[in-house]
Design brief:
Order of helices and strands: EHEHEHEHEHH
Largest sheet: 5 strands, parallel
Bound molecules: 4'-phosphopantetheine
Shape: globular
Structural class: alpha/beta
Number of strands: 5
Oligomer: single chain
Number of helices: 6
Helix content: 40-55%
Distance between the termini: 47 Å
């Protein structure tokens, strides 16, 4: 597998995302982790904060770079000359949406393939939304996200002030 893109919101990055990044970095020659810059979405972290957290968390992986994109993922993948889009699948509930996006992207650019990695069972329930929900009430998020970003998430909610 040549150059691959792992796109997402990563608001914030979770241990589930990091597991997919590590595993897909072993499949691809080069992996670009890319944050969607979606001004329509009410995000907890600014895009540059998400990019910098991802850079910090993936610095030990030599073939991984981190960026951001706006507009259509398929156009971005084409521009970056990526042959593969990586997505994680947690449960059957992800499937319909992911299938629809993958098929749309394939219609747009038939030479770009989407590859799904199933998430590890221990992270199959995990999402950025769940992390935010737990953090907003001051709950323990240390098993969901890397230790280095726990306090940054709480700070957004004024937890521990
Ligand atoms: O982490 P997420 O929020 O599940 O990531 C979703 C993402 C960024 C992969 C998806 O929303 C996306 O690709 N958005 C860009 C617009 C686009 O290309 N949509 C799919 C074709 S309709």
């Amino acid at each position: 597998m040549r150059r691959a893109i792992y796109p997402g919101s990563f608001d914030p990055v979770t241990k589930g995302h990091l597991d997919i990044i590590e595993r897909s970095s072993r499949l691809a020659d080069e992996l670009i982790v890319s944050v969607l810059n979606n001004s329509a979405k009410n995000s907890l972290f600014f895009v540059d904060e998400r990019v910098s957290m991802l850079k910090e968390m993936t610095s030990y992986l030599p073939n991984v770079t981190v960026g951001s994109f706006d507009g259509l993922l398929a156009d971005y993948a084409k521009r970056m000359d990526a042959a593969v889009i990586i997505r994680g699948l947690r449960a059957v509930t992800d499937f319909e949406y992911e299938l629809q996006i993958a098929q749309t992207n394939h219609e747009l650019y038939p030479d770009i393939e989407t590859v799904f990695l199933t998430t590890r069972l221990e992270y199959s329930y995990l999402s950025s939304t769940i992390v935010k929900e737990v953090a907003s009430y001051g709950g323990d998020i240390s098993r969901f996200v890397p230790q280095q970003i726990v306090e940054r998430i709480y700070a957004k909610y004024g937890v521990g002030d």
